[in-house]
Design a protein that fits this description.
By secondary structure, the protein is mainly alpha-helical. It has 17 helices and no strands. Helix 4 crosses helix 5. It is globular and about 55 Å long. It starts with a helix and ends in a 5-residue tail after the last helix. The relative contact order is 0.13.
Length: 401
C-alpha cells in the first residue's frame, strides 16, 4: 500500500470514527428524550380518562390499548423489513406528532380519549423500534458503551418527567402537557433523522409462528418461569402507573406533591440496577436476587394496604422501597432471560417483549372486575396475590451459578 493510499485510509477511518461518535451522542440524546416522553404522560393518562368518564375505573381504556397493541407487535417486523429500521421509527414518530398536535386542541371528551389511546398504542412500538435500531450498531464494537450510555440517560429522562408533568398539569392543564410531549417527539424525530437515517444493512426476514414460539417456551421451562416472573413485574407496573396517581389524588395530594413522590421513587432504578447486576454475576446469581426483589415488593405493597396515613413523606418512602425491589427484579429477570438465549433467538426476544401489553390486559381485567365490588384500595391485595404467586416460578428457576 502506497503512502497516499495509507493517508486516504486513515482519513476515511477518522471520518467514520467521528461519524460514529456523533451518532452515539445523538442516540444518548434520543434516550433521554424517550425516557422523558414516557414519564411526561405515564402518570397523568389515567387522570385524563377519569375526567372523560367520571369514574376511577378506567380499565376499559387500557384494555383496548394493549389488546390492540399485543397482536400488532407480532407483525411489526414486516414494517421494518419493508421500510428499514430508522425509517420505520421515523414513520411512527411522525404519526405520534400528528396525534399530539390534535390532542392539544381537543377538549377532554371521548374523541380526545380515542386519540390518546392511539398515541399509547403507537408508543408501545417506539421502544421496540429504538431497540432494533440500536442493534444496527452492535457490529461497530461500541455495543456496551452505547447500551450503557443509552440506558443511563433514558433513566434520567424517566426520573425528571413526573415532576415536570405534574407542574404543567397543576399550572396549565392537559393541553400544555400534550404541547410539551409534542416538542419532545419533534426533537426525537430530529435526533433519529440526523443520527440514524444513514443506517444500512440487511434486515433479516422473520416469519414468526406464534405456535412454535409458545411451544419453545413450554418445552424450555426456565423460559416459561422467567416469562411468568416478568409478567408479574409488569402487572405491578401497570397497576401502579394507572391507579397510583388516582389513589394519591383521592388521598388529597396536590399534583406537585404527587410529582415529587414519583420522582423520588424512581431513584433506585438509577442507583441500584448496575450494582445488583454485578452482585448477581460475581456472588449471588439472578434467582436469589429475584426472590429478594419480590419479597421487598410484597412487603412494601402490604404496608401500603395496611396504612391509614395520608402524608406525602410516608408514601414517598413506601413507594421508594417498593421500587428498590422492582429495580432488583427488573435487572435480574432481564439478565436471566438473555443468559438463556442467543442473539439469533429473535422470535423468543419478540415474545418476551409481549409481557408488558399482556400484563396490562390481565391487570385491567382483574382490577376492573374488583373495582365493581370494592374500593380502589383493594388493588394492593390484587398486586400482593400476583407477586406472591410469581414466587413459585421464581423458586423453580434453574440457578445460573
Amino acid at each position: 500500500m502506497t503512502k497516499t493510499q495509507k493517508q486516504h485510509v486513515k482519513r476515511r477511518s477518522l471520518r467514520t470514527e467521528e461519524s460514529t461518535s456523533r451518532s452515539i451522542q445523538l442516540i444518548a440524546f434520543l434516550g433521554f428524550l424517550y425516557g422523558l416522553s414516557i414519564s411526561l404522560l405515564a402518570y397523568v393518562t389515567s387522570s385524563y380518562f377519569k375526567t372523560v368518564i367520571g369514574s376511577d375505573n378506567v380499565s376499559v381504556f387500557y384494555f383496548i390499548i394493549f389488546a390492540v397493541a399485543l397482536p400488532l407487535l407480532f407483525h411489526l417486523h414486516r414494517l421494518v423489513e419493508g421500510f428499514g429500521r430508522a425509517r420505520t421509527l421515523m414513520l411512527v414518530l411522525i404519526v405520534q406528532i400528528d396525534v399530539l398536535f390534535f390532542l392539544q386542541f381537543l377538549p377532554m371528551n371521548y374523541a380526545g380519549a380515542v386519540l390518546l389511546m392511539i398515541y399509547a398504542i403507537l408508543n408501545s412500538f417506539v421502544a421496540v423500534l429504538i431497540d432494533i435500531v440500536l442493534e444496527a450498531y452492535s457490529v461497530d464494537g461500541t455495543t456496551g458503551r452505547l447500551r450503557g450510555l443509552y440506558l443511563s440517560v433514558w433513566n434520567f429522562g424517566v426520573l425528571v418527567g413526573p415532576l415536570i408533568s405534574m407542574y404543567i398539569l397543576d399550572h396549565f392543564g392537559f393541553s400544555a402537557i400534550f404541547t410539551a410531549e409534542l416538542l419532545v417527539y419533534v426533537a426525537m424525530f430530529l435526533a433519529v433523522f440526523l443520527a440514524l437515517n444513514n443506517i444500512r444493512g440487511h434486515v433479516p426476514k422473520q416469519r414468526l409462528s406464534l405456535r412454535k414460539v409458545v411451544r419453545t417456551f413450554r418445552m424450555r421451562r426456565d423460559l416459561s418461569y422467567i416469562y411468568a416472573v416478568s409478567l408479574a413485574l409488569r402487572f405491578f407496573y401497570a397497576s401502579m402507573t394507572v391507579y397510583m396517581p388516582l389513589y394519591l389524588f383521592d388521598l388529597g395530594m396536590q399534583p406537585m406533591e404527587v410529582g415529587l413522590v414519583f420522582t423520588v421513587m424512581l431513584i433506585p432504578f438509577i442507583l441500584l440496577q448496575y450494582p445488583v447486576g454485578v452482585l448477581a454475576d460475581k456472588k449471588y446469581g439472578e434467582k436469589e436476587m429475584m426472590i429478594l426483589g419480590l419479597i421487598i415488593m410484597i412487603g412494601a405493597t402490604a404496608w401500603m394496604w395496611a396504612t391509614q396515613r395520608t402524608d406525602v413523606w410516608m408514601w414517598m418512602a413506601l413507594l421508594t422501597v417498593s421500587r428498590v425491589g422492582a429495580a432488583i427484579l427488573e435487572t435480574m429477570e432481564d439478565s436471566y432471560f438473555y443468559k438463556q438465549i442467543t442473539a439469533h433467538d429473535m422470535a423468543l426476544i419478540n415474545c418476551f417483549r409481549t409481557t408488558r401489553p399482556f400484563a396490562y390486559i390481565v391487570c385491567m381485567i382483574l382490577t376492573g372486575a374488583v373495582f365493581f365490588f370494592f374500593e380502589m384500595r383493594s388493588m394492593f391485595i390484587v398486586i400482593i396475590i400476583v407477586l406472591a404467586l410469581s414466587l413459585v416460578p421464581a423458586v423453580r428457576l434453574r440457578d445460573t451459578r
